[in-house]
Design brief:
By secondary structure, the chain is α+β, with helices and mostly antiparallel strands. Helices cover about 65% and strands about 10% of the residues. It has three domains: about 150 residues, Globin-like (Orthogonal Bundle), CATH 1.10.490; about 80 residues; about 150 residues, Heat Shock Protein 90 (2-Layer Sandwich), CATH 3.30.565. The two termini are about 55 Å apart. It binds adenosine-5'-triphosphate and magnesium ion. Adenosine-5'-triphosphate binds next to helix 11 and helix 13.
Length: about 425
């Protein structure tokens, strides 16, 4: 107890009181376990009348005891392990668990109310009681902060793994759709090739029969040769078409995580790609202008950029422009935000209808079916942008006024799998 004070003197605060309060708290925790637990239990039952019906008093006593022991270990022995395992337990994600974070927080209040009740029974001085309550409040603050950290870490881990699972599921669904699409697309040329080959087979059998019977005429040999050439052309053309589809499919199926990333100076690299695409358009009336920020460097697989740009230029030449009137393409590279780049490719060609815009990235969407279009180009571009560059692609287009494709991507490499939250 503090010595009586001279009314002229300022009250004694700080270390001596702290020490006295701490000694008292330790003795309360060692001697009054039952009284503190009982008072804490009474308090929580009074405060939460619905508890009375739901949980037998014994169980509530047990919970308050657990909390008491955790805090006693912490205060008396400086041993946080029991408290931490309780935090671990209450923050473990279990939908059906009746122990929630509030259990731990309310449990602390039971403990504190229990200590207060016992202090009241001992008629301690207000100053000393305040000092003890202050110490307990600090403890509460530290414990709840710790619990929030632990809980937030666990939630983040759950979010990250959910996100990774969702991405995986999305990829599998997209791949499933693609496989069905490819099977459907390949079916037609393969079917035609098989029909042509079996017609050829029948003709060869008939020809052989005529030859063996010595009845082969010049005219039937000529007919055979004509039919055989037609059948061979059909077979060959359709097998080529099927083979092209398989090649496109292989391009999509490339596992982006095995590509080679390196530091690339974007401006020079894009100029190189554009000049390699020159033969596609230089002899015609069209031109490609560049507006490039040469200061940008990115960590990526440069082949991906080349693949993207090749598809965009080819599309503009094939779909946007009429052969005779000159078309202008513009490639723009600029900084986007603090650590990103924006690559925009525009043409002033025919533009896209609303439906075409909506379906542009769908696999097998093409307006040139039967004329060399597989409808995989923009789908591949979309996969490359999202999966390899970890960026986004948007389309902006009005019929008759041209099309702009805008690609934004981070300059620094991202971890494959889960994007940062
Ligand atoms: N710049 C553009 N201007 C007008 N239409 C376009 C443009 N780019 C794409 N399209 C339209 O979008 C469709 C889909 O393009 P995508 O590149 O995916 O397939 P494709 O060019 O038809 O075939 P592939 O690229 O597989 O040979 C095209 O058929 C065309 O109708
Ligand atoms: Mg294309």
């Amino acid at each position: 107890m503090t010595a009586p004070q001279d009314p002229e003197e300022p009250p004694v605060t700080g270390a001596p009181l702290r020490e006295e309060a701490r000694a008292l708290l330790l003795s309360l925790l060692q001697e009054e376990r039952e009284a503190i637990v009982n008072a804490g239990t009474d308090w929580i039952i009074r405060r939460s009348p619905d508890l009375q019906g739901r949980r037998p008093r014994d169980e509530t006593v047990m919970l308050v005891q657990r909390e008491f022991d955790a805090y006693r270990d912490l205060i008396v022995d400086g041993d946080p392990s029991r408290r931490d395992s309780f935090i671990e337990f209450t923050t473990t994600f279990r939908a059906s668990s009746e122990f929630r974070i509030s259990t731990l927080l309310r449990g602390f209040l039971c403990f504190k109310r229990g200590v207060e009740a016992v202090m009241q029974a001992r008629s301690l001085s207000a100053e000393l009681s305040l000092e003890i309550v202050g110490t307990l409040d600090e403890l509460y603050f530290e414990t709840s902060s710790r619990m929030v950290d632990v809980y937030a870490d666990k939630l983040l881990a759950v979010l990250e793994s959910t996100q990774a699972q969702l991405m995986q599921r999305e990829k599998m669904a997209a791949l499933g759709g693609l496989v069905a699409g490819v099977a459907h697309e390949i079916n037609t040329p393969m079917g035609v090739a098989v029909t042509a080959a079996s017609l050829l087979h029948d003709s060869v059998v008939a020809l052989g029969r005529d030859f063996d019977g010595g009845q082969l005429r010049k005219s039937s040999l000529a007919t055979f040769l004509r039919d055989a050439r037609e059948a061979a052309d059909l077979t060959l053309g359709n097998l080529r078409r099927a083979s092209e589809l398989v090649t496109s499919f292989k391009k999509i199926a490339v596992d982006q995580s095995h590509t080679t990333r390196r530091k690339v100076s974007l401006g020079p690299y894009l100029r190189e790609v554009v000049s390699s695409l020159g033969p596609l358009y230089k002899r015609g009336p069209h031109r490609l202008d560049l507006v490039i920020d040469d200061s940008l460097t990115a960590e990526l697989d440069p082949g991906v950029l080349s693949q993207i740009l090749t598809n965009l230029v080819q599309n503009a030449l094939v779909h946007a422009f009429a052969d005779d009137s000159p078309g202008v393409m513009l490639l723009l590279l600029q900084r986007h935000g603090d650590d990103g780049a924006e690559l925009a490719f525009s043409d002033d060609g025919r533009g896209l209808s609303e439906v075409e815009k909506r379906r542009l990235f769908e696999p097998f969407f093409t307006t040139r079916r039967g004329a060399g279009g597989s409808g995989l180009g923009m789908h591949i571009v979309h996969s490359l942008v999202t999966q390899s560059l970890h960026g986004r692609i948007t389309v902006d287009s009005t019929l008759g006024e041209g099309t702009t494709l805008r690609i934004c991507f981070p300059l620094r490499a991202q971890i494959t799998g889960a994007a940062p939250i």
